[in-house]
Amino acid sequence: MNAVLSASALRRKARLDALTEIEFPADLPVVARREELARAICDNQVVIVCGETGSGKTTQLPKICLTLGRGVLGCIGHTQPRRVAARTVAARIAVELKVELGGLVGYKVRFHDKVAADTVIKLMTDGILLAEIHSDPLLKKYDTIIIDEAHERSLNIDFLLGYLKQLLLRRRDLKLIITSATLDAERFARHFGAVVVEVSGRSYPVETRYRPLQVSDEGEAQDVPQAVSAALDELAVGGLRGDVLVFLPGEREIRDTAEVLRRHHPKGIEVLPLFSRLSAAEQDKVFKTGAKRRVVLATNVAETSLTVPNIGYVIDCGLARVNRYSIRQKVEQLHIEKISRAAANQRLGRCGRVMSGICIRLYDEADFLQRDEFTDPEIFRVSLATVILRMSSLELGDIAEFPFIEPPTPRMIADGYQLLAELNAIDENRQLTQLGRELARLPLDPKIARLLVAGRQYQCLTEILIVASALSVQDPRDRPLERQEAADAAHKRFADERSDFLAYIKIWAWFEQAVAHKQSNRLLTEECRKNFLSPLRLREWRELHQQLHTQVTEMGMRCNELPASYEQIHKALLCGLLGNIGMKSVESNEYLGARGIKFFIAAHSVLAKKGSKWVMAGELIETHRLYARCVAKIEPEWLEETGAHLIKRHYYDPHWEKKPAQVVAFERSTLHGLLLNAKKRVHYGPMNVPESREIFIRQALVGGEFDTRAPFFAHNLKLIAEIEALEHKSRRPDVLVDDELIFAFYAKRIPPHIHNGATFEAWRKEAECNDAKLLYLQKDDLMRHEAAGITTDQFPPQLKIDNVSFALSYNFSPGKNDDGITLSVPLALINQVSAARCEWLVPGLLAEKVVQLVKTLPQKIRRNLVPVPEFAAQFCRAVPATTTPLQLALARYLREQQQLDVPLNAFRLEQLPAHLLMNFRVVDEHGRQLGMSRNFSQLHDELAPRAAPVIVAATADEGEPLTEQRYTTWDFGEFSETRTVKRAGQNVTLYNALVDEGESVVLHAFDNRELAQAAHRGGLTRLFMLLLKDQVKYLEKNLPDAQRLGMLFIPFGTQQELQQQILAMTFERCCLNEPLPKNEAEFSARAKEAKNRLLLIARELARLLVNVLNEHHALQKSLPQLKAHHQASQDIRTQLEWLMHKGFIRDTPYEQMQHLPRYLKAINLRIEKLRSTPTRDAQCMAQLQPLQQAWQKLCQAQQGNFNADMHAFSWLLQELRVSLFAQELKTPVIVSVKRLEKMLATLRN
Question: Which of the 8 DSSP states describes residue 1093?
Answer without folding.
Answer: T
